[in-house]
Amino acid sequence: MLVLTRKTGESIQIGDDITIKVVAVEGDQIKLGIDAPKNVDIYRSEIYQQIIEANQQASLNEETKDFIKNLKKE
């Protein structure tokens, strides 16, 4: 993991098209601004984990398995 120190108003560049800017520091919270292309999905990590778990549960669902089997037959 790369750890960087930034002050309010400073930013970090990721590749050519993603910029993360420190917008504010208030107590123990940091507000970040993220500038990225519209095709890049951005989630808080706990929400992203919930999405992964929901997708895994859906893939185990019998209706989903039947749907996939029917797609393969076509």
Automatic annotation (TrEMBL):
Location relative to the cell: Cytoplasm
GO cellular component term of the entry, any: cytosol
Any one Gene Ontology BP term: regulation of bacterial-type flagellum assembly
Cited InterPro entries: CsrA (IPR003751), CsrA_sf (IPR036107)
Gene3D superfamilies xref list: Translational regulator CsrA
Keyword Iron belongs to the record: no
Keywords: Bacterial flagellum biogenesis, Cytoplasm, Repressor, RNA-binding, Translation regulation
MF (Gene Ontology): mRNA 5'-UTR binding
One Pfam family recorded for the sequence: CsrA
Subunit structure: Homodimer; the beta-strands of each monomer intercalate to form a hydrophobic core, while the alpha-helices form wings that extend away from the core.
Biological role: A translational regulator that binds mRNA to regulate translation initiation and/or mRNA stability. Usually binds in the 5'-UTR at or near the Shine-Dalgarno sequence preventing ribosome-binding, thus repressing translation. Its main target seems to be the major flagellin gene, while its function is anatagonized by FliW.
HAMAP family membership: CsrA
Family: Belongs to the CsrA/RsmA family.
Name by which UniProt lists this protein: Translational regulator CsrA
Organism, as annotated: Allobacillus saliphilus
